[in-house]
Design a protein that fits this description.
The protein is α+β, with helices and mostly antiparallel strands. 32% of the residues lie in helices and 27% in strands. The longest helix is centred in the middle third of the chain and has 20 residues. This is SecY-interacting protein Syd.
Length: 188
């Protein structure tokens, strides 16, 4: 199940950083009262963080109604479980970043970006996908979830999925390996 796979990935992720002795640090927005932030955002807009369970899951209903497009249950579950920084993972030796939301304000931004993505897919007459992250090798290579099948794949912005990574988000998360990234800024 998706929630167990996501919980397990976050547990493995925080454990990998703890084992390596590397603090969890993320770029932050000093205007947000994000529950994941541990302390004040520093002058480099960096802060230590920890994942925090959402009190009530993100509500997709207004966006789905406006787009007249129901979203895949796995996608809704993924973004309705945790507030977190983006996660650096490897998928079969490919470095990826899985997107997450820091707080409610960040959730609003994510929903607006998803709306733009869905509208672009419609305009291009392509199957609807929902983006989950980015490949590190290219800013325009997205990790997406096929909104019909639930398969996780790769697609370049404006293109259709060209490679399937996993038949489901649950399998994708279970087989993703946390990647410890040395943070350039030292947080005091």
């Amino acid at each position: 199940m998706i929630t167990e796979a996501l919980d397990d990935l976050l547990q493995r992720y925080t454990a990998a950083y703890a084992s390596a002795g590397v603090p969890l640090v993320t770029e932050a927005n000093g205007d947000w009262q994000a529950p994941i932030y541990l302390g004040a955002v520093d002058e480099n807009e960096m802060v230590r963080w920890q994942p925090v369970r959402q009190q009530s899951g993100l509500d997709f209903s207004a966006l789905m109604n406006a787009l007249e497009e129901p979203f895949h249950d796995d996608f809704k579950a993924y973004f309705s479980r945790w507030f977190s920084a983006d996660l650096a993972v490897d998928w079969q030796q490919h470095p990826l970043w899985l997107l997450h939301m820091h707080c409610d304000e960040d959730a609003e931004r994510m929903l607006a970006n998803q709306a733009g993505h869905v509208l672009m897919k419609r305009r291009l007459k392509q199957p609807v996908t929902l983006f989950l992250g980015l490949a590190e090798e290219s800013d325009d290579l997205l990790i997406t979830l096929d909104n019909t099948s639930g398969a996780v794949g790769l697609e370049f912005v404006g293109q259709q999925q060209h490679e399937q990574l996993a038949p489901s988000l649950t399998e994708f998360l279970a087989k993703s390996t946390p990647r410890v990234v040395e943070n350039p800024a030292v947080i005091g």
